[in-house]
Here is the input.
Amino acid sequence: MHKSITKIDRWFGLFLLLPSIVIICFMFLYLLGYSGYISFTNLTLKRGWNAMEFVGLQQYMRAFTNPTFWKITGQTFFFISGAITGVVLLSTGMALLLNEPFKGRAIVVALFLISWVLPRTATTFIWSWMFDGQFGIVNYILMSLGIISSPRVWLMHANSAMGILILTYIWRQIPFATLIILAGLQGIPKQLYEVARIDGASTLRQFISITLPLVKRVMLIILVLQTIASFKAFTLVYTLTQGAPRGKTELLITYIFKQVFEYLNFGYGSAVGYILITVFILPLSIIYLLVYIGKE
Amino acid sequence: MFGYTSKIRTWTIAKRAILLVIVGVMLIPVVWLFMSSFLAEKDIWSSPPKFFPTYLNFSNYEQILSDSDFAKCFKNSLIIVVPTTVLVALVAVLGGYASARSRFKIPFLNLISIGILGAQMVPGPIILIPLFILYKFLNIIGTYVGIVFSYVAFLLPVALWLMRTYLLAFPEEIEDAAKIDGCSNLQILTKVVLPNVIPGLITILLYTFIEVWGEYTFAVVLTDADTITLPIKIASFRSRQTAVIGPSFAGAVLFSLPVIIIALMLHRYISTSLGGRISKG
Here is the structure.
């Protein structure tokens, strides 16, 4: 009797999980495997399917010997280091400020979430107009403060365009990163601080000796997750600068998309995509998994 | 003693002030969007630009609402977002439940868990390459079914993980008790589990809605002129690409309004569940 019940349980459980497994296997095993196969071919839709040939590692060699690929990899690292520094510092600060109950906290959190829930293309719409070369509010404010004497076309200069991109990205990511750090902070027992206070430890001392060691794991997770996320930052970049001026704000992820869907180089684009996944995202994901499972 | 408490109070006031200033600064772009949407066309183009409208002018809204192209995109976005959200929630609740209960004895559960987490790391544009080829082959580019399926598949891993962690934190004993009382598995699912996972379910629904409502990458490749969605329309409004810009500000406001309302009214579901998901495990 008992045995048959567990058997029914097992079938029922499998039945519930089956749709999820099928969908995930299709999307992330079959499709990812298929794009791996394409990366070993010379498929370009300009020449069509019939001209498709197996070319081995040729597309990968093409990427590694292409100066543009290395230039864009460098730009990607610049973008990521700027984005991560900003996001981690600011969201840690915000999490510390939000980590205690006070009147109106719920409203502050709700308003704070807006920059994160806002659709990405609405964000780029706003920022592109604020930094508009002629009518932008930023030009107006900087001119009335006397910082600049004539309007600048911010998104058309390499340095300022990259700066705006990083700024927009940070603006969007802060709330989410803050929520995760906040959840880590709220897991610290309050008694630890009380004991430290009775012993006469200063706020700074409490932060260094209690807060930091206990949120180390959360900080590591946020660092890894944010690095992965900034490798994947496509929509903001593609709709805000589109790589302009002259490819100076092109990142690996937008480069891949353009190679495939604008120049129709499916083979080459897939190869660069696989480089992005295996060289950068896979090692980071393994670190994330180890940290995540490590303390369960 | 008095000096100590007043020092703490000054510090507390300073902390609140810094917090309010940061949140205030972060809201400037959104406030600016709302303000500008009420400006008459000539005032948007004026130099120096007007920041605070001294009047309320709804003509931008009238124009964008009578724009048939905008209406079409809005309709398409709704047609796509509703079934996607429902399907993601349905599959994720069932799968999350099965993977969170030891009595189901799912084989290779560790491997499945790693797969669900790993799938969240794959960049959309890279999955899009083979997906585009497949859709081209099946001739379903520009169909609602095609885009909805791609969204369900791409958003499922996160939703599934949210549901799994939510159910892991929820005691299994109640279900065991129901079992002893003679409830079937299906009855336990509908009468015991479902009523208790409603907060987690709301989180998934909101998460999926927010993601799909603003999704651009898949939409720009997998939709056509008839099924084009709102994010693409709004992206075409960016600086220097349209002649009349007033209505596009109103359009961006209407596009952003649903998610802003969600953030303001239902932020509890977003902040607690999403925040706890990754750090606690």
Remarks:
- Residues 45 and 112 of chain B are 56 Å apart (CA to CA).
- Chain B has two domains: 2-36, 67-280.
